[in-house]
Amino acid sequence: GMLKNKLINNKKTILVVEDDKSLNKIIILKLKEAGFQTISVEDAESAFKFLDGNKPDLIWLDIYLPGMNGLEFLGKIRKNKKTENLKVVIVSVSGSNKKIEQAQKLGVTEYFVKSNYKIEELIEAVNNILRKA
Q: Containing H/E element for 44?
């Protein structure tokens, strides 16, 4: 009845921008298991297309993407009134201080270096970020 519909609407939506197909699949699977609605894209251009008419609760972003990289993408999001306040979590193989610093200047919500975390821990972190929201 009513309650069920309400629960569905409470689902948080996560946009995953990750060009590694197998990793993308795993992330989506785990996020769905955790009860999130997911949209999966493999490049910044597709992400912008989605953002044009939709507002996800959080963006899960890789840095190394074909075409525009994740940091450039984040910069553009922050310059656009419609998307400037979106929560963005970077999950990247690279965690150089320079990259982390750049990401922080661009207002990244959190920055995770892939090798330091199990996927479950990343999902848990995302969950915590959205719970505070």
A: helix 44-53
By C-alpha distance, which of 72, 99, 101, 74 is closest to 86?
A: 74
**Residue range 82-128, pLDDT digits in tens:** 999 999 999 998 889 999 999 999 999 999 999 999 999 999 999 99
The pTM assigned to this predicted structure is: 0.91
Q: What CA–CA distance (Å, rounded) separates 57 from 55?
A: 7
Provide the edge-to-edge strand list for the sheet that holds 37-41.
37-41, 13-17, 58-61, 88-92, 110-113
Give yes or no for residue 2 having a pLDDT over 80. no
- If one counts every other C-beta atom within 10 angstroms of the C-beta of residue 108, the result is 21
Token pair of 2 as six digits: 């009513």
Residue carrying the six token digits 């990401």? 103
Q: Are 65 and 94 in contact (CB under 8 A)?
A: no
Give the residue carrying structure tokens 């493999």.
42
Written as six digits, the tokens of 93 are: 């193989």
**How many CA atoms does the CB half-sphere of 75 hold within 13 Å?**
9
Helix (H, G, I), strand (E, B) or coil at 23: helix
